[in-house]
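Hi Y.,

Following your request, here is the sequence exactly as I used it, all 246 residues.
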Amino acid sequence: MSTASTTIPFASLFRAECRKAADTRAARWLLAATVLLALAAEAVPLAFPRDVTQDRASFLTWAALGLTRLLPIALMLAMTAEWSQRTALATFTLEPRRGRVVAAKVLAGLTLSVIGGSIAFGIAQAAVAVARAGGRHPAGGWSWPELLGFTAFVLLTSGIGMAIGSALHNTGAAIVTYFALAAVTSLLLIPAVQSAGSWVDTGQAFGWMLTGQWSGHGPQIASCAAIWIVVPLAIGTIRTIRRDIH
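Below is the corresponding structure, written out as tokens. Let me know if you'd prefer a different format.
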């Protein structure tokens, strides 16, 4: 039988990875908590109308911030599943071309991010409706830079979680590293190093992106994406391809 006739279709790999991403109790709880955090975040602009800008972009920003607190962690579980759950032998026996498995995992993670972003967008819309029902008049209308920034923020923040999980192959280490890096890069907000830090600190660069401030910040956003997504994902792909399975 030829190799081509026994190749698993990529669509099948993709469906399998989507299913695996939500197949464990921990993943399901994390995904549920992610949606709840997006809902809870909307309490801020609703409860503090004098302190928080009352427009659609502000409500959407808070939904995005709530969504991305735990979503990257849920996607880390999917990226480290073969190694943390000791299913690598079965997975890579069925599909020896490990790069295809990594690609399917990344695409599945991005798909979940798009679904999560759509839910967050709906939550923001509902919060705006609640504010209007309460007699407020949030500024209406969406701008394309803001919508694009929201979408990119959700996808790239999720990408960081997937990239770190891919590089480390260990769920606990990936989670600790993710939060440790966030703490360390926050030190770059110190005025003395803020200008240079914007090329490394995702909190600042992705913050510009989330609020639609693309002009003049594109290089910093691209730099952060390359450092925290492209590089670790490339390392993780190489490790996955070369790692021995015992």
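The chain has one domain: 9-242.

Thanks again,
Q.
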